[in-house]
């Protein structure tokens, strides 16, 4: 059944998407979340909400989301670009890890924290964009370079102000 789903548009009545809700749906290509969605999985137990959606190419995130939990988009190997909406204040480690074709990420000025606290339990370097060999740029707001160099010291060379 999961393999038949190719597109998801979440209804406006939904406010929370549970951890793993769409994990391992191999044929999903696009997802649209309405402004009513406030959370993607559990921040502390992990999101994995869309992990291993191998054909996911397009996602429109809700502006009401404040936190992107760990492993939310882990293994979405065809995701090429993502815009994190203004309002997101925290992204947990590994949220976008293993997105092999991810080229560009746009981050909002509202982002205050990249949480690496859970990294000690991982046997490999678990950075927010680890195993993303195609990552070319991380687009940040003009005048915010110093802030993002502190948040993403391992990716400072990829920061582009726009």
**Strand order within the widest beta sheet:** 7-9-11-12
Unreliable stretches covering 5 or more consecutive residues? none
The percent range for helix content is under 10%
Order of helices and strands, N to C?
Answer: EEEEEEEEEEEHE
In CATH terms, the superfamily is Ribonuclease Inhibitor
**In CATH's first tier, which class applies?**
Alpha Beta
**How does the helix and strand content classify structurally?**
mainly beta
Question: End-to-end distance, in Å?
Answer: 42 Å
Strand content: 15-25%
Question: Mind describing the biggest β-sheet?
Answer: 4 strands, parallel
Q: How many whole angstroms does the radius of gyration measure?
A: 15 Å
Number of helices: 1
Count up the domains. 1
Q: Tell me, what's the shape?
A: globular
For the record, the CATH architecture stands as Alpha-Beta Horseshoe
Number of strands: 12
CATH fold type: Leucine-rich repeat, LRR (right-handed beta-alpha superhelix)
Mean pLDDT over the residues: 89
């Amino acid at each position: 059944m999961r393999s038949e789903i190719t597109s998801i548009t979440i209804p406006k009545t939904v406010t929370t998407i549970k951890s793993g809700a769409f994990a391992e749906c191999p044929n999903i290509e696009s997802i649209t979340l309405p402004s009513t969605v406030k959370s993607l999985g559990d921040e502390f137990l992990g999101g994995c909400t869309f992990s291993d959606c191998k054909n996911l190419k397009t996602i429109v995130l809700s502006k009401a989301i404040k936190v992107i939990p760990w492993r939310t988009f882990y293994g979405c190997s065809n995701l090429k670009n993502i815009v994190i909406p203004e309002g997101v204040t925290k992204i947990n480690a590994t949220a976008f890890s293993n997105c092999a074709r991810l080229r560009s990420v746009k981050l909002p000025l509202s982002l205050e924290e990249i949480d690496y606290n859970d990294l000690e339990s991982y046997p490999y370097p678990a950075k927010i964009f680890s195993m993303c060999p195609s990552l070319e740029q991380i687009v940040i707001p003009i005048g915010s370079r110093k802030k993002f160099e502190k948040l993403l010291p391992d990716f400072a060379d990829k920061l582009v102000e726009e």
